[in-house]
Amino acid sequence: MIEIENLSVGYDAPVLDRLSATIDEGELCLVIGPTGSGKSTLLGAISARVPHLTGGRVAGRVRIDGRDTRQHRPRDLADLVGVVGQDPAATFTTDVVEDELAFTMEQLGVPEPLMRRRLEDVLDLLDLAELRRRPLATLSGGQAQRVAIGAVLTAQPRVLVLDEPTSALDPAAAEDVLAALARLVHDAGVTVVLAEHRLERVVGFADRVISLTPTPDGATAAVGAPAEVLARAAVAPPVTRLGRLAGWEPLPLTVRDARRAAGDLRTRLGSAVVPRTPAPGEELLRADRLRVTYGSVVAVRDVDLSVPAGQILALTGRNGAGKSSLLWALAGALPPTAGRVRAGGRVALVPQSPEDLLFRLTVVAECAAADPPGESGATRTLLDELAPGVPGEVNPRDLSEGQRLALALAVQLAPGATVLLLDEPTRGLDYGAKARLAEVLIGLRDAGHAVVVASHDVEFLAQVAGRIVQLADGQVVTDGPARTVLTDSALTAPQVARVLAPVPLLSVAEVAAALAGR
Amino acid sequence: MTTLAAEHNDSLRSTGHPLAWWAWAAGCAVAASRVGNPVVLVLLLLAVVLVALARRPAGPWHRALEAGLLLGAVVVLVRTGFYLLLGLPDSSPVLVTLPTIELPAWFSNVSLLGEVHVAGLVQAAVAGLALAVLIVTVGAVNAVASPRRALRSLPASLHHLGSAAVIAVSAAPQLLTAARRVRRAQRLRGQPARGLRGLAATLIPVLAGALDQALDLAASMDSRGYARAQRGGSRLVGAALVIALLAAAAGGYGLLAATGATTLSAVLLAGGVLLAVGASVLASRSVRRTRYRAEPWGWPETVITTCGVLAAATAWVGVILDPAGLGPWRLSTGWPGLPLLALGILAAAAVPAFLPDREGR
Amino acid sequence: MTAEQGWSATSPWRAGRAVPVGLRLGLVLGAVSLVGLLAFGWPLLIAPGSVLASATTAPLVLGVVLAAALVVTLVAVSDGGLDVRAVAMLGLLSAVGALVRPIGSGTGGVETVFVLLVLGGRVFGAGFGFLLGVTTMVASALLTGGVGPWLPYQMLAAGWVGLGAGLLPERIGARRLHGVAELVLLAAYGAIASVLFGVVMNLSFWPFLAGTGTAISFVAGAPVVENLGRFLAYSVVTSLPWDLLRALTTVVGIGLFGHAVLVTLRRAARRAVFIEQ
User: Fold this and answer.
1) ipTM of this model?
2) Which helix (H) or strand (E) holds A417?
3) Integer Cα distance of B119 and B273 in angstroms
4) C71 three-state secondary structure
5) Which CATH architecture has domain A283-495?
6) Which residues of A touch C85 (CB under 8 A)?
7) Shortest alpha-carbon distance between residue A54 and chain C (Å)
8) For residues A218 and A7, what is the distance between their CA atoms, to the nearest angstrom?
9) How far apart are CA A273 and CA A57, in angstroms?
């Protein structure tokens, strides 16, 4: 279906280096690699956006069902290749669900009776019938992403290209979207090419993996069956890394495979010493009977919370449970309806989209503006500690997600904050960037800061959190040590904990330490 | 959020094809600018307001009528205000004498305030009323048939610019949300949220976000087959369009010239329109595109359009047949009556109030 | 095939203008501007016996002619084929314009939208600037319910502002304009454009608002100089203070935000491959 021969792509610097791969009809092919390794460029080359829309130099050849992308612009492939991006809202061209679904068919000149029939089919397939007349602006993230997928499916493409379709979604919405994709592959025989950061969710469905490794001459690719490629790939889900550590053969891809192979490891780890988190210090932030309401909606309901120095506290809960409202109220940026917040020092908040904090044209200007009086250069020094090698003369928007987050952190921390609040900081970060963020947060904790992280990402929380507070409907439902809370539930626990239960280890690093310490 | 929900309900019902409503409004506007009888003008205003009240759907456009009424009142006040300030003397009795202010001669030999004559004042108010009817009509049609729906009915030859307008209108609420989010975030940094600096701190991230979104959107539209079947423009169409424009310019100039040129300019304008429509049809053919649930044209649309045409025609002919009753009215001729023909205009303007909405889209 | 051969086998992608103004678009823009001159300047051109001598009909009839001419222009632009990136960019920039317009008019005549039109025209070129003016006014009217007889006039006047900004010279003599010199040029242009915009908008609706019975009213068919004198008096009384304030705020706006907005727009133009890397 998709033949890629010796594809090289370069803009100012080379991005892809002589990449060859074949993807057969009806396969789900996963494209993995760290940020900046050219995943988007590869997907762009398959949808003919590279070079027709992006410019750049291209050599080699990509053919989709025999159509060469050199002669075919993206619009000439519209009936064959459907493309779904990261942010569905950015790709909507109309304002009502039905119109959006019909857009592609209108452009292709599909006659109206056929258009209506296909639209009904897609509404059923993706379970969108309820939403058909809803304005797009009122949809939740998961619904919007399903509409975006539906909008390309109405043209009945035989290839679907998705660039991190779940990176902006919470876990439930991401499951929705991935379940819809799995159904498409199995029932409709659509060929799917998918780039995704959180491999643990998708690697189970994949038939083929293309793993990109950046080199100075552009990224090179390893192509093959999932288990075989992941054995060597730089990025892999926690179960696979656990398998590598334990030397399992074949390498497990899902919790189920790993659990069956892990009997021996569990006994070896049975007496493992659980690493202790350092004892927290004095209280730095305190909320008493805190209540936040928007009109008649109560977002935060009488929450009592005490955050001590030297602790990383994680706020969890589904979307709309009140995590963000609580953070904003704790930061003093949202006046509470009742109750009070007391802080022993400056409280800094990094919101969900850190770029909102940044508006200057270069990193240097942004740093200079954040320097506290009399300490010029302080922000830049802090930034270099958090993320070494961020270029100075670049627009903050052109940085990678991880670098931008580091810049926002530096800007917020520079004026001497003692409490740091982060809202969904791992959105769009790859494994490497998440690991660096974990190091940074642990460093801040050890330096005596109090850190509060609102996040859905249990794998990340397993690495950093000392205490977990779960919110539901604006109220605290659970408040306890992270290890206990995270291993409590078999469904939401991190992968390593699910494989090793009842051994209370949460991450591959902990397992490695336990094995080494024995 | 409430307006979005209202619009959601709105999309289930339809007041009719927007073009029909604009034809009706144009008819009423012609009538209002033709008729000089203040009683007829007031009744026409009431008829238009009646239609808007009866037919406007709930939605964000709902308030366009009130805005029109307010603006109309302002225009009447401005017109009379200008007369009070700068009015020229006439032969009618003086109503009141205000202190005169002479402007310096080097500026212009105009005096402010001074004597206020009854006829001039009433004249100014009536002329203002005619304008107010016009403005209220525009408000009414905006309230009844949201011009956004008209975007769905644009011909294929306006494909690109129509798409740009649809994108703009759909993206605006998103950008507003983004702007609020950015302002909130900027406050976290302790930036001054007010003043020009605050504006820059909000504007630049929103602008940069919008531009990034534009590129994503362009890529998505391209991958979804936007303008796929379009071939490059044809010479014939281009030449026809340029000639049509030149004909419009010449025709417009002819209209401004002395009476003799009227026929010639009418011919030129009509020829230009024909040429442009022909070229547009030809250009539409080069865009192969279908419409999902195009706005239908049924008997209510025909009735609405006919009402507009009738109102305009009756007013136009009426002024010629009965210049005393419908034409420009002077205070000296006494209290204005309500001629029979005026009832025709009013009936035509008001009938659309009693037509049913269409269920579904 | 080695990589080296590969690079040379496919030529590098060429950058293009957002909306190239060729002979055809140039002619169309010229012709529509001619219609616009008539529509705006009619009070000075009209002969005493004309059918349009009545103060209220002329702006309406000419408004219809102008609207039709604008539609024809847009058909011509569409028929030439518009780059999809230009369409999306037009859509989003006019949404931004439509949103900043009310912000401006609330705070003492600050026409923020002019800043965007001038800078957008400068970065994306004359053709795009014209279309940006037109679509911004349409979007603004659609969003605020302000569709009326004044819309065609606003569309064309705003289109001229963007068009003119796109026609400003890239270099003076051998020196390429950038930095402060470029901002000074744009601010000066912005000031002139603001005043002219106000004056021409005022001109076409002058008889409409001032009526006929006052000392500053127009007299159909009177000599141009005489009408011009009355019009100037009318302008001074009504809108000139606003126009001057708008010019001032446009200058201040370009001075304050100009650099940042230019950099932001140029970054987008580079990413869209509208300008050379």
Assistant:
1) 0.86
2) strand A417-423
3) 42
4) helix
5) 3-Layer(aba) Sandwich (3.40)
6) 53
7) 7
8) 11
9) 55
Residue C7 resides in a domain = no
Rounded Cα gap, residues A452 and A423, in angstroms: 9
Chain B CB contacts of A99 under 8 Å are: 292
Does A55 contact C10 at a Cβ distance shorter than 8 Å?
Answer: no
- At A294, the amino acid letter reads Y
Please check whether residue C228 lies inside any domain of the structure: yes
Q: Which two tokens stand for residue A141?
A: 């993230």
Residue C24 tokens read as 């055809």
Q: Is the pLDDT of residue B267 over 50?
A: yes
Q: Does the beta-carbon distance from A57 to C260 stay under 8 Å?
A: no
Question: What residue numbers bound the domain in which C76 lies?
Answer: 18-271
Does B71 score more than 80 pLDDT? yes
Side by side, the strands of the sheet bearing A2-10 are: A14-23, A2-10, A57-64, A67-68
> What token pair was written down for A45?
């080359």
Percentage with pLDDT > 70 across chain A? 99
A390 CB near a chain B CB, below 8 Å?
no
| Per-window interface: C 56-95 vs B, CB < 8 A | 56-58, 60-62, 65, 68-69, 71-82, 84-85, 87-95
Domain map (residue ranges) of chain A: 25-36+73-208+218-236, 283-495
Look at strands B358-359 and B13-14 and give their pairing: antiparallel
User: CB neighbours of A233 closer than 8 A, spacing ≥ 6?
Assistant: A32, A209, A211, A213, A222
CATH of the domain at C164: 1.10.1760.20
Buried b (16+ CB within 10 A) or exposed e, C215-244: bbbbebebeeeebeebbebbbebbbbeebe
Rounded to the nearest 10°, the torsion over CA C100, C103, C105, C110 is: -70
The full set of domain ranges for chain B reads: 2-153+295-359, 235-285
Distance CA A457, CA A493 (A): 10
Neighbours of A518 (CB within 10 A): 10
Give me the residue from A59, A360, A395 closest to C10, CB to CB: A59
Q: Which residues contact B2 (CB under 8 A, 6 or more apart)?
A: none
The DSSP-derived string for C83-103 is -HHHHHHHHHHHHHHHHHHHH
Q: What is the mean pLDDT of residues A134-140?
A: 81
Q: Give chain C's domain count.
A: 1
The arithmetic mean of pLDDT across residues B6-24, rounded, is: 67
Closest CA to B154 of C138, C94, C129, A89: C138
**Alpha-carbon Rg for chain C in angstroms:** 21
Q: What is the pLDDT along chain C (277 residues), one digit of tens a residue?
A: 333 333 333 444 455 577 888 888 899 999 999 999 988 888 887 777 666 666 567 777 888 889 889 988 988 888 777 888 889 999 999 999 888 876 655 444 446 788 899 999 999 989 999 999 999 988 888 776 567 777 888 899 999 999 999 999 887 777 777 788 899 999 999 999 988 888 888 887 777 666 666 667 777 667 777 788 888 887 777 677 777 877 888 888 888 888 889 989 988 888 887 765 4
Q: What is the mean pLDDT of residues A45-61?
A: 85
Q: How far is C33 from chain A (nearest CA, A)?
A: 31
Beta bridge partners of B187: none
Touching check for B2 and chain A: CB below 8 Å? no
The SS3 of residue B292 is coil
Distance of CA C10 to the CA centre of its chain: 40
Q: Which of C95, C134, C132 is nearest to B169 (CA)?
A: C95
Pair A221, A202: CB distance under 8 Å:
no
Rounded Cα distance between C65 and B131, Å, is: 20
pLDDT in the model for residue B258: 66
Q: Does B176 touch chain A (CB under 8 A)?
A: no
SS3 letters for A352-372? CCHHHHCCCCCHHHHHHHHCC
Return the CATH class of domain A25-36+73-208+218-236.
Answer: alpha beta
